[in-house]
Design goal:
heterodimer; A: alpha/beta; eight-stranded mixed beta sheet; about 10% strand; globular; B: about 280 residues; alpha/beta; Rossmann fold; elongated
Chain lengths: ~350, ~280
């Protein structure tokens, strides 16, 4: 059975680097490992052996046995929903619809849904011992987990039921007459906007069974996955990380650990420098020592408030850009749960 | 900046956008302005930087002449419907507002026009010398700034269509509006800010934005020497400085704000940044 590791967290915290590092480390433990990443920096893409041609098909690494990498294509978005779950003529209307185009931009869950769908497909394939998924950062990342249900809800249509005034319709049943609320809406929005929205939603409604079934499969896979939350000690990503601990249990998930990336050394805190050191250097150490203390406090508080297993990866002057550097990142981590990369431990 | 009527503060998530919005609000109040600052997002950032626990839709005076509110879309819509249509009866309005909210997930620009519309309404009503919007992050900023135009294109008739025109004019007026993009001298924020600048230039919806780059360290006056933590911290500082200088070359800020070290509360951060802005005036 394939074990999925979902690496989540706010954008800009080094989530993609940590995902790649976990993948390399896992491959070096002798496990067939696939890393699924979103929009990696060039140096990471080349470290993972995917070079410039970032395909959505897994490529074996030229120099690292057991390691594969592929890109998640978040831009597939609703287009794939339409083409997979709707009749060809309906799909054609959908992808060319102005609301469809707007909805795919306005509804970040659709991108997350497409990414979760692709990731689930690779886990189901059973060709790897471990699949590491670098989740897309849209809407703080929690979207990746709620997207299947959100999609089914939108497609299944509370709005549509409201617009059509009842349970569901054959072809076209947008009924303005006799519904004062719709008349008011029309006077604000202009007549026919709601009618066009209703038409779009009726087409979208035909994908409901497909989307809902697939959503349940994806959720089941997520429920069995190991979830890691990556953050730095900055307040904004810490707030995002706390959301995972607060909201995931409600949808059947529980993070295995939070990883504080780019942690400054604790020895800097309150360090007494020797007498003969230049004043500027002493003051510099005091400033960064205060930062290290702030980070340490943030980790302690996070563990206490969220009942979290806290791990930390030390700050490095240069981000790792090769396989050894990536593997070293995981080796240097403090308190990483050993079970994370153990395929038997699901 | 303080001569405008509306400051729209945006930036990539985590760059200190809410801290800058709170700092500018304090600065303007010190200069005798009557200020309304609006939290357009769902984060608790702005209220923390203002030193209050929570904000509501109804503006509240958090310190003399500094009023703050949180934009709640359903409240905003109910207010709009009450003012515009003279509809009474909250139960009916509540249902309508919920339905609009659902509509906003599918119909382009409806969600955005309800939010930005409230901000622009406050500017138009002239209850304040200055309105400061702690706006959505840059990833979504474009759809908010473009909302009046999108509505005008999408809806051929109707009341919103007529109002979209003055909203667009207000945003485009350089005497009224200034967009402030908060940035960090790091790869992802600078790339995103540059993309936003290109988009804004291409779409020409607002006057040229002001770039505020936050959390800049200054050069270490001496060479990294010694051993152990003294040398490590010096090397760390130099690496951060070099990285920041690299990204500063790719985007030159109009205002530079310093890295604030150590344990400061969010309201202390806002107060310190407001002094930094003062020095820039």
């Amino acid at each position: 059975m394939t074990k999925a590791i979902l690496v989540t967290g706010a954008g800009g915290v080094g989530k993609t680097t940590v995902s790649a590092a976990l993948g390399v480390k896992s491959a070096r433990l002798g496990q067939r490992t696939l890393v699924l990443t979103v929009d990696p920096a060039r140096r990471l893409a080349s470290a993972l052996g995917v070079g410039d041609e970032l395909g959505s098909e897994p490529e074996p690494h030229p120099d690292e046995p057991n390691l594969w990498a592929a890109m998640l294509d978040a831009s597939l978005s609703w287009r794939s929903v339409a083409t997979r779950h709707a009749d060809p003529d309906v799909a054609d209307r959908l992808v060319n619809n102005e609301f469809f185009l707007a909805a795919s931009q306005h509804f970040p869950a659709s991108q997350s849904y497409a990414a979760a769908d692709q990731a689930a497909t690779f886990v189901e394939a059973g060709a790897w011992d471990i699949v590491v998924v670098d989740t897309p950062p849209s809407a703080g990342g929690i979207d990746f987990f709620t997207a299947p249900a959100q999609m089914a809800d939108l497609v299944g249509g509370r709005l549509l039921r409201w617009l059509t005034g009842g349970p569901l319709p054959g072809r076209f049943l947008y009924r303005r007459a006799g519904r004062p609320v719709l008349r008011i809406a029309d006077s604000i929005l202009g007549s026919d906007l709601l009618e066009r929205v209703a038409e779009f939603l009726l087409d979208l409604r035909t994908t409901y069974d497909g989307v809902a079934d697939r959503g349940r499969q994806i959720e089941a896979l997520m429920g069995r996955a190991t979830i890691l939350v990556v953050t730095t000690a900055d307040p904004a990503p810490v707030t995002e990380a706390a959301r995972f601990y607060r909201e995931l249990p409600a949808i059947g998930g529980q993070p295995a650990a939070v990883i504080f990336n780019r942690s400054l050394p604790e020895e800097w805190i309150g360090f007494k420098p020797p007498e003969n050191v230049a004043r500027e250097l002493v003051e510099n150490l005091q400033r960064w020592g205060a930062e290290s203390l702030r980070q340490s406090d943030a980790r302690t508080e996070f563990a206490a408030v969220n009942h979290a297993h806290v791990s930390s990866i030390p700050w490095q002057p240069e981000p790792p850009n090769d396989l050894d550097g990536l593997a070293g990142l995981i080796s240097s981590a403090a308190s990483m749960p050993a079970s994370v990369l153990d395929p038997g431990e699901i | 900046m303080l001569e405008k009527r509306l400051l729209v503060v945006s930036g990539k998530g985590g760059v200190g956008k809410s801290a800058v919005a709170a700092a500018l609000a304090q600065l303007a109040t010190r200069h005798g302005k009557r200020v309304l600052v609006i939290d357009m997002g769902e984060s608790a950032g702005l209220s923390a930087h203002l030193g209050v626990t929570d904000l509501e839709f109804t503006p509240r005076e958090v310190r003399p002449d500094l009023h703050a509110m949180r934009l709640v879309r359903s409240d905003s819509l109910i207010e709009y419907l009450t003012l515009q249509l003279s509809i009474r009866g909250l139960s009916r309005l509540g249902g309508l507002a919920r339905a609009f909210d659902a509509l906003a997930t599918a119909a382009p620009a409806v969600r955005e026009i309800i939010s930005i519309g409230k901000v622009l309404w406050e500017v138009r009503e002239q209850n304040w010398d200055l309105v400061i919007a702690d706006a959505p992050p840059t990833g979504q900023l474009g759809s908010y700034l473009r909302a009046p135009l999108s509505i005008a294109e999408l809806v051929p008739t109707g009341r919103i269509q007529r109002q979209a025109a003055w909203m667009g004019d207000t945003l485009a007026n350089p005497a009224v509006t200034n967009v402030i993009l908060v940035n960090l001298a790091e790869e992802l924020p600078t790339t995103e800010t540059n993309q936003t600048l290109e988009w804004l230039e291409r779409n020409d919806l607002v006057p040229e934005p002001t770039i505020v780059t936050n959390r800049l360290v200054s050069a270490l006056a001496v060479k990294a020497r010694g051993e152990g933590p003294v040398k490590e911290a010096a090397l760390h500082h130099q690496a951060v400085y070099a990285e920041q200088q690299h990204w500063l070359e790719r985007l030159t800020p109009d205002v530079s704000l310093p890295y604030l070290f150590g344990l400061l509360t969010p309201s202390e951060v806002a107060a310190r940044l407001s002094e930094e802005f003062e020095a820039h005036l």
